[in-house]
Amino acid sequence: MPRWNPEKKLLEHVHTKFWRPELKDIPEPNLMKEIFPYTDVPYIEFDHRYVPPDPAREIWITDTTFRDGQQARPPYTVEQIVDIYKFLHKLGGPNGVVRQCEFFLYTQKDREAVEKCLALGYRYPEVTGWIRAKAEDLKLVKEMGLKETGILTSCSDYHIFLKLKKTRRQALEDYLAIVKEALSLGITPRCHFEDITRADIFGFVIPFAIELMKLREESGIDIKIRLCDTLGLGVPFPEAALPRSVPKLVRAFIEEAGVPGELLEWHGHNDFYKAVINPTTAWLYGCAAVNCALLGFGERTGNTPLEAMIFEYIALRGTHNGVDTTVITDIADYYREVLGEKIPPNQPLVGSEFNATRAGIHIDGILKNEEIYNPFDTKKLLKRPIGIIITDKSGTAGIAYWINTHFHLKGDRQIDKRHPGVAKIYKQIIKQYEAGRITSISNEEMMHLVRKYIPELFVSDLDRMKARAERLLSSLAEELAERPEICSMDPDKIVPVLREFLEEHPYIQFIYVVNNEGRRLTPLITHVEDRGRYEHLLKDEDYSDRPWFIEPFRTGKVYVSDFYTSKVTGALCLTVSAPIRDRYEEIIGILGMDIRFKELMRMEEEDEEGTA
């Protein structure tokens, strides 16, 4: 019968009681072997019936990093879960583009993680649970105080008959029973229609969804449905046939079962490389939410990468809506540096080389205008400037670009590709490849070549390092020199403080205190492995003629020396010294710290990588 649709301004067809989807309680499973032969690639059928796009008014992302995403990697610690949850909150922004995050609830560690995330008080992403279709599992949700939980409600005959050993009728009744129990506890159920792309859509799926919508109407509590493409079999083609057509699946729930689009959620896997296009298609055809995991972690080939759908969201909506895309790089760095995850270098958005090029002709184009070979401003949106991988194909343009990027050279300071040093570096690289080299030139190798053929860059580099040392260490030295233990000029009180400070700052080679006559009150406090060799070295030395002793007395300020080679260890160092004052503000001694250049350089490189 016809029903007026106020949005489309047309009468639309609604099935009468004489034609409605009903449960087909068949005696044996329908495994659809004609399209899922198992001994061959699954086939894609077309019925040539076109379905037009009809997106929901609002779309958003939900996260399964701590549930499905955690089933494919070593478990996260509680602290790591909290860290990542904070990233998700910042990434999704205040408007809830990343709206929900689901958690396991079965172990003490799971529950502790949930408690700590809830304690942060974030509105988004909302913490939700995930349980089996068992009443005892619902108690966990209630005890944790969660308002919503996912419930596993497998819907294909592969699962109903072969895994659960039930009939369709038995499965339906069991699922409805657990949903009713959730509703009685005031918990919003989210039914996970597992393996939907191999299910009998009108013989089980839609009849089940219709029953859920009846319970929703009776209870007044929303019931959500997650469309789980468990084996990644969905296809984005509107003219394809059910059960594999994502457009037809979404529209069947909306039009045949009466499920509002805001209660639908797509969950996909990447078995057939469609983990991004399928959720995007689900959005286009009326599904409001898509479920993802950070970096695409998940069983087998993984889940839909959350960072990819952030970019899809912006592309479809034309607005960031509070999203902070730069957090994607922070997340990737966390996975690499804290979790020790090896992210493929060419993985979009997060790989170390995703926006790097090797081809000389591309590099030459980038030098003229980076928009020629870069799809968007990666530096602005991801804190990732364009990278260059040096090979025999990079040319002098690539070498010059690498140098200018790594040394942050701009304007008149930039190195031109015709610079004599660039030509010499290029010649050395070509020789290596002519001798049979097949790997790319590492950053370390490039630094060595630049140091050899364009040494003048490292003069300014040393100056930059010194300025960084002054910024980092001046306030630290000043604060340490003001501590009561140091001002006491009592070695027994000073030494423990210096040892503790050294442990916190491993780039320090020696730390010590001298009196106002230039005599050392303390040993040369150094790291455990070096104490036997150095602590009591030069203990009777007179330091009163040293610049690091004289300058703080003269200026009353922290002093930072030039770089020098340590006579004791042979390491390239600089010294930072700060005046020690008594209660009358008179200088009574000097606190000195010798800083190892190599450690300081490593600290600089890590800082640059973190902001790249």
TrEMBL record:
All copies of domain Pyruvate carboxyltransferase, residue ranges: 59-329
UniProt source species: Thermosulfurimonas dismutans
Protein name: Isopropylmalate/homocitrate/citramalate synthase-like protein
Family: Belongs to the alpha-IPM synthase/homocitrate synthase family.
The UniProt record lists the keyword Lipid biosynthesis: no
Taxonomic path: Bacteria, Pseudomonadati, Thermodesulfobacteriota, Thermodesulfobacteria, Thermodesulfobacteriales
Tree of life domain: Bacteria
Xref: Pfam families: HMGL-like, MCP-like_PDC_1
GO MF term set: transferase activity
Keyword field contains Flavoprotein: no
Matches recorded under PANTHER family: HOMOCITRATE SYNTHASE, ISOPROPYLMALATE_HOMOCITRATE_CITRAMALATE SYNTHASE FAMILY PROTEIN
Keywords: Transferase
PROSITE patterns linked to this entry: PYR_CT
